[in-house]
Design goal:
The complex is a heterodimer of chains A (406) and B (448). Chain A has three helices and 22 strands. In chain A, strands 1-4-5-7-8-9-10-14-15-18-19-20-21-22 form a 14-stranded antiparallel β-barrel. The radius of gyration of chain A is 22 Å and the shape is elongated. Chain A is mostly beta strands and 406 residues long. In chain A, a hairpin with a 4-residue loop joins strand 8 and strand 9. The longest helix of chain A is centred in the first third of the chain and has 10 residues. Chain B is an alpha/beta fold and 448 residues long. Chain B has two domains: 315 residues, 3-Layer(aba) Sandwich (Rossmann fold), CATH 3.40.50.1110; 79 residues, no CATH class. In chain B, 51% of the residues are buried. The chains are: A mainly beta (406), B alpha/beta (448). At the A-B interface, strand 2, strand 8, strand 19, strand 20 and strand 21 of A face helix 1, strand 2, strand 14 and strand 16 of B. Strand 8 of chain A pairs parallel with strand 16 of chain B, so a sheet runs across the interface.
C-alpha cells in the first residue's frame, strides 16, 4: 500500500475548484450522474459518499477511478482589457476503495483512499495577479478506514476515520526589482495533515425510495513542515530571510442530504443537496517562525469564505443488457463572496453537467466512464488586492473507473 | 425516447454554460467624442520622462504621455515621437549630472550617480531632425517659459535658455514649446505644467528662483500665460486634458528627512548642546535638548542671531548633504536656508499652488477640457496608498515605489499610475473607453 500511495501522490496534484478547493471526484459512476449517490450505493466508493450506505452493497468490491482534469482559463482585466492566461498542467485526482463484509454479515469494512481537495493554478509569467499568485498547487490525499453497519433491512450507519495529508506550494512575484528589471520571487511550501470523520445514515423507506444524511467534519490542516524562500536583490535580502513557516488551513465541514427514487427497475433518479461550511476560512495566516519578512511576522491571505451549497440531480438507466447510462448536473453556489475572488481559486456559481456510462464485461468486472464539464465565469473586484476583472475557466474532467466484485 | 430527451437536455445545459463562459470579457474600446489621431503632450520634466535626477532612455520610455499614447493606439491614436537620448547613455540632469542608481555605500543603500558626470553630448547633439516630437515635455519648463519664443536659443546666454529644448527644436532661436506643439496640429493634447512655477522656489528652499506671480502679461504671469497656451492649442478644435499640480509635501524630496531628525543618544550630547544654545533656549527659540528626537537647528535670517530650531510642519530637503548632517549640521551648526522650507515659505508655496490649480480648473471648465486632479491623486497615494493588483504603492522614498531616486520624479509604476489618472479623466470627459495601462510589468526603484 505504501508504494501505491507514493506512486499516486505524484499524480495527485489537482486542478479542480469545485466549491473552492473541494473536489467531488470520488467515483466515476457518481460523476456521471451529477456527482450524486448519497442514497444510492453502487460500489466501494460509497464509503466516501455515504459510509452508512456501504453495508447495503450487494457484493464486496474493489474499485479504482481516475479523473484527469484539463483546465484552462483567462483573466480579463476590467481596467486594461489585458488578458492573462492560465494553462494548467493535466493532473489526476483518483480514488481507490475496497469494501468487504462476510456474506450475511451486517458489517462491511473497508478502506478508501481519495483526493478530497486540490487545485493547481499556473498563470503565465507577468500576469495581472503575479504579486498575489503565479502558481499554487494544493495536493491532498485522504485515507479513510471505514465501518458500515446495517442496523435493519432499512437502516444503515457508517463511520470513517479520515486522515488527510496535504501539500501546498505557492509561488508569487515580490514587488522588489533587481537591477536588470526582474522582479523577486517567493515560494512557500507547506506540508500539513489533519484528522476528521466521515459519517453517514442510510434509510431505505421503500423498495423504491431511499434517503441519506451525511456529515464530513471540518479538517484543521496544521503544517508539519513549511518553508518560505525568497529570491530578491542582495541589498534587500536581509528583509526577506528564508525560514520555516507554519499555518493552519481550516477546511470546511460538509453536510449532505440525499434522496434516491427508482420509478422502475431500470431507472434511478437522485436528488441531493450539500452545504459546505467554509465560515472558518477567513484569513489564512502564514507565520514566519524566525524573522520578519518585509517588516511583518506573517503573511495574511484574506479569504472570508461563506457557506457554499450545491444542489444536484442525476438519473441512471440500467439496461437489461450489460450497459448502464447516466447523466446529471449540479448547481454550486460559490463560498467566495463578492470582493474576495483571487487568482488562486477563481470560483463562481455554476452549473456543471455530466454524462456517464458503464459496461459490465462479466458479473464481476465493470468499466465506468464519465465526463464532467465545469465552466467558470466570474467578474469581481478584489477589495484587498484591487484585482478587477473577469475570470473565465473551462475544465473538462473525463473519468475512468474499474470495479471488481468478489 | 426518454433517454434521448435526457441526453439532449444535458447537451443543452452544457452548451449554455459553455456559451456563458466563452463570451468576450473585454470592454469595447472607444474614442468617444475625442479624436486621438495626433496626440501632443506639453509639460516639464515629468512629461519628458526625467527620472532619477536625469533625462535618460529608460525613463523616457515610461514617460506617462508615452504610456498614454500606447493606449490611444487602440482607439485611433498614431505614432508618438519622443526626443530620445541614446539607450546606453547615463543621461543628463539639470546640473549636468548622470542619473542616480541605488548602491550599497558603507553597508547602506544610497542613491549615487552612475557616472561622475552626465552625458553632455545630449545637449550638444540635436535630435530635432527626428521630430517633430509628440512629447513636448522639457525639463525645467514653466507655464511662463513654455510660451517664450527662443526658449532654446543659446545666444540668450547660460541660464536664459533651456538646452533640453535646444536639442529638440528645429528653430532654437525663434521657437517656443507652444509653437512647436501647435505646428503639429494636434487633435488631442495634454498640458501638465505649473510644478516648476512653484517647485523652482521650493527645491531651492525658497532661496532660488521666485514663484511665478498669478498676474502679469503672458510670459510673466501664470494666469495669462496659461490662457495663451490653452487658447492656442484649442484654436484648431483640438480636445485635451489639463492636469493640476500636487502639493509639495506629496513628494519624498520634501518629506524624507524629518524636522526633528536630530537624534541624540547620550545625555552628554544633550548637555553640550544645551550649554552651547543656552541663550536661545532662554529666549524660547530653541527647546532644551534631550535624548531622542530633537528639532534641527537651522539658519533663519528673520530670527534673532540668525538661527533657530525647526518647528513641526517645516521641511528639510532631500538635497541636504548627508555628510554635512553627520558633521554637525543641524546641531552644532545650523542647516543652511536653501535646504529648508520654513512655515512662511510653505505658506507662499501653498497659496500659489492653490491659485494655480484654481486657474487650471477654470480653464478646463471654460474650454470643455478634461481635468486631471493630480493633486488629489498624489495626496491619496501619500496618505492611503494604492493597491495595484496586490502590491501597495506609496510615496515613501525608495520603498514606496511611486517616486524615483530624486524624490520628485516618478518611477515606471509611478508613471503608470499617473497615465491612468489622465486616461480616467479623459474617458469620463469624452465618453471614451481607453483601456488603462497594465501595471503588471512596471516596477519602482531597482535594487542592487
Amino acid at each position: 500500500m505504501k508504494k501505491l500511495f507514493t506512486g499516486f501522490a505524484l499524480l495527485a496534484p489537482m486542478a479542480v475548484f469545485a466549491q473552492g478547493y473541494q473536489l467531488n471526484l470520488q467515483g466515476t459512476r457518481q460523476i456521471g450522474k451529477g456527482s450524486t449517490g448519497l442514497a444510492d450505493p453502487t460500489d466501494a466508493t460509497a464509503m466516501f459518499t455515504n459510509p452508512g450506505s456501504t453495508a447495503f452493497l450487494a457484493a464486496n468490491d474493489i474499485t479504482f477511478g481516475i479523473t484527469p482534469a484539463f483546465s484552462k482559463g483567462t483573466f480579463t482585466d476590467a481596467n486594461t482589457n489585458v488578458e492573462s492566461h492560465s494553462d494548467n498542467p493535466v493532473v489526476t485526482p483518483f480514488n481507490l476503495s475496497a469494501a468487504y463484509g462476510r456474506e450475511k454479515s451486517r458489517f462491511k469494512y473497508g478502506l478508501s483512499i481519495y483526493t478530497p481537495f486540490g487545485s493547481t493554478m499556473r498563470w503565465e509569467p507577468g500576469s495581472a495577479g503575479r504579486f498575489e499568485t503565479r502558481e499554487i498547487a494544493l495536493l491532498s490525499i485522504s485515507f479513510q478506514p471505514t465501518v458500515s453497519y446495517r442496523i435493519s433491512n432499512k437502516l444503515g450507519v457508517g463511520l470513517g476515520l479520515v486522515y488527510t495529508y496535504g501539500h501546498v506550494q505557492i509561488q508569487k512575484d515580490v514587488p522588489v526589482q533587481f537591477s536588470n528589471g526582474d522582479f523577486g520571487t517567493a515560494s512557500i511550501d507547506c506540508r500539513a495533515n489533519g484528522f476528521g470523520v466521515n459519517a453517514g445514515l442510510y434509510y431505505a423507506v421503500t423498495n423504491q425510495l431511499a434517503l441519506a444524511l451525511t456529515y464530513r467534519s471540518a479538517l484543521n490542516m496544521k503544517t508539519s513542515s513549511g518553508t518560505a524562500e525568497f529570491n530578491v536583490p542582495a541589498s534587500v535580502s536581509g528583509n526577506f530571510p528564508n525560514q520555516d513557516v507554519n499555518a493552519t488551513l481550516p477546511l470546511p465541514q460538509i453536510f449532505g442530504l440525499g434522496m434516491t427514487y427508482k420509478p422502475t427497475k431500470n431507472w434511478t433518479v437522485n436528488l441531493e443537496g450539500y452545504l459546505s461550511d467554509w465560515s472558518k476560512y477567513d484569513t489564512v495566516r502564514i507565520n514566519y517562525e524566525t524573522a520578519p519578512v518585509a517588516g511583518s511576522m506573517s503573511s495574511d491571505l484574506i479569504r472570508e469564505y461563506n457557506t457554499g451549497f450545491s444542489v444536484r440531480a442525476g438519473v441512471e438507466y440500467l439496461s437489461e443488457n450489460k450497459y448502464e447510462l447516466r447523466a446529471g448536473a449540479f448547481f454550486s453556489k460559490s463560498p467566495i463572496p463578492d470582493g474576495y475572488v483571487n487568482p488562486d481559486v477563481p470560483d463562481a456559481n455554476r452549473i456543471n453537467p455530466s454524462i456517464g456510462a458503464s459496461y459490465n464485461f462479466t458479473k464481476r468486472f465493470r468499466v465506468d466512464a464519465a465526463l464532467l464539464a465545469e465552466f467558470i465565469n466570474r467578474k469581481d473586484e478584489n477589495i484587498v488586492s484591487g484585482i478587477n476583472g473577469t475570470y473565465n475557466f473551462t475544465i473538462w474532467l473525463p473519468s475512468v473507473g474499474l470495479t471488481y466484485k468478489f | 425516447m426518454k433517454r434521448f430527451n435526457l441526453f439532449m437536455t444535458v447537451i443543452a445545459i452544457t452548451a449554455l454554460s459553455w456559451a456563458s463562459c466563452k463570451k468576450d470579457a473585454k470592454t469595447k474600446v472607444s474614442a468617444g467624442d475625442a479624436d486621438f489621431t495626433k496626440y501632443v503632450a506639453i509639460g516639464n520634466s515629468l512629461t519628458a520622462g526625467y527620472a532619477d535626477n536625469a533625462l535618460y532612455y529608460d525613463g523616457q520610455m515610461v514617460a506617462y504621455p508615452y504610456l498614454i499614447a500606447q493606449q490611444l493606439r487602440q482607439v485611433g491614436g498614431g505614432e508618438f515621437r519622443q526626443p530620445l537620448v541614446d539607450r546606453s547613455s547615463v543621461g543628463v540632469g539639470i546640473s549636468g549630472n548622470a542619473r542616480l542608481a541605488l548602491s550599497v555605500v558603507n553597508g547602506a543603500l544610497t542613491p549615487r550617480p552612475v557616472a561622475p558626470s552626465g552625458d553632455m553630448t545630449i545637449f550638444t547633439s540635436s535630435v530635432a531632425n527626428q521630430g517633430p516630437f509628440n512629447n513636448m515635455g522639457v525639463p525645467g519648463a514653466k507655464v511662463t517659459t513654455a510660451i517664450f519664443p527662443g526658449y532654446g536659443n543659446p545666444a540668450n546666454g547660460a541660464g536664459n535658455y533651456n538646452p533640453f529644448f535646444t536639442r529638440m527644436t528645429t528653430a532654437p532661436a525663434t521657437a517656443s514649446m507652444l509653437s512647436d506643439a501647435a505646428a503639429q496640429h494636434p487633435t488631442f493634447f495634454t498640458v501638465f505644467l505649473g510644478s516648476n512655477d512653484v517647485l523652482g522656489y521650493a527645491t531651492s528652499g525658497g532661496a532660488g528662483s521666485s514663484i511665478t506671480p498669478m498676474e502679469g502679461a503672458p510670459g510673466i504671469g501664470f494666469s495669462a500665460s496659461y490662457d495663451a497656451l490653452v487658447t492656442t492649442l484649442v484654436a484648431g478644435g483640438a480636445k485635451g486634458a489639463l492636469a493640476n499640480i500636487a502639493d509639495v509635501t506629496t513628494a519624498p524630496f520634501f518629506t524624507t528627512i524629518p524636522y526633528n531628525g536630530l537624534v541624540l543618544t547620550a545625555q552628554a550630547q544633550a548637555d553640550a548642546l544645551n550649554n552651547a544654545y543656552a541663550p536661545l533656549i532662554t529666549a524660547g527659540l530653541v527647546a532644551s535638548f534631550k535624548i531622542g528626537a530633537n528639532g534641527f537647528i537651522i539658519a533663519d535670517a528673520d530670527a534673532p542671531s540668525g538661527l533657530r530650531q525647526m518647528k513641526p510642519g517645516e521641511l528639510v530637503l532631500l538635497s541636504t548633504p548627508q555628510d554635512s548632517l553627520k558633521a554637525g549640521w543641524g546641531s552644532s551648526k545650523p542647516i543652511a536656508n536653501q535646504y529648508i522650507l520654513t512655515t512662511a515659505e510653505l505658506s507662499q508655496i501653498r497659496t500659489a499652488t492653490t491659485n494655480f490649480n484654481q486657474k487650471i480648473r477654470s480653464v478646463a471648465t471654460e474650454k470643455g477640457l478634461a481635468y486631471v486632479d493630480v493633486a488629489s491623486f498624489l495626496q491619496h497615494v501619500k496618505t492611503v496608498g494604492v493597491e495595484v493588483n496586490g502590491r501597495k504603492i506609496g510615496t515613501t522614498f525608495v520603498t514606496g515605489g511611486a517616486f524615483s531616486l530624486d524624490g520628485i520624479h516618478l518611477t515606471p509604476i509611478g508613471n503608470v499610475l499617473l497615465a491612468n489618472e489622465f486616461i480616467k479623466a479623459i474617458n469620463t470627459k469624452y465618453n471614451a473607453f481607453v483601456p488603462l495601462v497594465d501595471a503588471s510589468g512596471y516596477g519602482g526603484v531597482k535594487f542592487p
